[in-house]
Design a protein that fits this description.
single chain, about 325 residues, alpha/beta, Arc Repressor Mutant, subunit A, Rossmann fold, 2 domains, two-stranded antiparallel ribbon, 12 strands, binds S-adenosylmethionine
Length: about 325
């Protein structure tokens, strides 16, 4: 759904293919010619690469593929009119607006999964925050056993930043019977997390009843509040809600609060380092662009933030499921 909206926007409203018809361009030059900010450009261009319409040449410039060439009106025959059948669809027009403006023009009730500054946040509204948190709880519950066994075994402290339902923490504590943990999130979200914890602890799994005594649900603002020290930090589906400059700030804050020898773990869906796919993630990136202030990032982008924050990024790429994976960085 998001791929087709991006494609129609690119052909009929932003003229991406026409801009590239005469010569290849660097990402930055194409972005400037189209008048796009970094975030929409980095949602759109990787998606068009993943769809096989653009490709990077040896000079790392974007150029049209044969398919991309067919999407220009100057090609004869061409597919441009055909792709444009839904060019006036309201969802397409809204996507164009958001690409041009780097997000919706008006957000009177705030942005999903975002609490920033003094403005309104759906995460502080009891009903909306409940439904947004529960919307992710099933995914967390499904992936948590896999993540828990790929994270290190430890008897120290895990900080699950913006932990939502908390399932990643509960499952990790079950696998690490001496460990303790903090789930930090907004107060309304933690009301739901407490219910999930109660359900988890009442399951008949051995040791599940010990988990509530080892976990603290800590209300706070990860952007401004002092963070508790930890041996391990888990940032699951977190960075992808935020623009690049906030990701840099968060990486620095997490690095500061890790104990020496500690590890920052990111669980997310990653773009290829070449920024040309995979399509499942470029589509997810468009969805994140639509709903949040973020997008999908490549592992290379994360590793750059980690290094800038004084951490040592490892080269391991660990898969989990649902197009997700883990990367980590170490605090010397
Ligand atoms: C996409 S959810 C991820 C939840 C969980 N980690 C998971 O993977 O299921 C992002 C979370 O960030 C939280 N969040 C957003 N802004 C925050 C802030 N400033 N401080 C603390 N948590 C915040 C939201 O409330 C939400 O629970």
């Amino acid at each position: 759904m998001y791929s087709s909206r991006l494609l129609i926007a690119a052909v009929h409203h932003l003229y991406v293919f026409e801009e590239l018809a005469t010569s290849p361009l660097s990402i930055e030059d194409l972005q400037t010619r189209l008048g796009l900010k970094e975030r929409p450009a980095m949602v759109l261009f990787p998606a068009l690469c993943a769809m096989g319409m653009l490709a990077f040449n040896r000079a790392n410039q974007l150029q049209l593929t044969d398919l991309g060439t067919c999407l220009t009106y100057r090609a004869n025959p061409n597919l441009a009119a055909y792709v444009g059948l839904e060019k006036s669809d309201p969802a397409v027009l809204e996507m164009v607006e958001r690409l041009k403006n780097d997000g919706p023009l008006k957000t009177p009730t705030g942005i999903a999964y975002i609490k920033e500054g003094e403005g309104p946040s759906p995460m502080d509204d009891p009903e909306t925050s409940r439904s947004l948190t529960l919307a992710l709880a099933g995914r967390a519950q499904l992936l948590a056993p896999i993540v828990a066994h790929k994270l290190p075994r430890h008897n120290g402290h895990l900080l699950d930043i913006a932990g939502g339902s908390g399932f990643f923490t509960y499952e990790w504590l079950l696998a690490n019977p001496e460990a303790t943990a903090t789930v930090l999130d907004r107060p309304q979200v933690l009301t739901v997390a407490a219910e999930c914890l109660d359900t988890f602890s009442r399951s008949n799994r051995s040791g599940a009843d010990t988990v509530p005594g080892r976990v603290t649900l800590l209300p706070g603002d990860m952007l401004t509040d002092e963070l508790p020290e930890a041996n391990l930090i888990l940032a699951a589906s977190l960075f992808h809600d935020w623009p690049t400059e906030t990701c840099r700030l968060l990486a620095q804050r997490f690095a500061n609060t890790l104990k020496p020898g500690g590890e920052l773990w990111v669980h997310d869906a990653f773009l290829n380092d070449a920024l040309d796919g995979p399509q499942a993630v470029t589509d997810y990136s468009a969805q994140l662009f639509w709903v949040t202030k973020g997008r999908a990032y490549s592992r290379r982008e994360y590793r750059q933030w980690f290094t800038e924050a004084g951490l040592v990024a490892t080269t391991e790429n660990i898969s989990t499921q649902l197009d997700y994976g883990l990367i980590r960085a170490l605090k010397p």
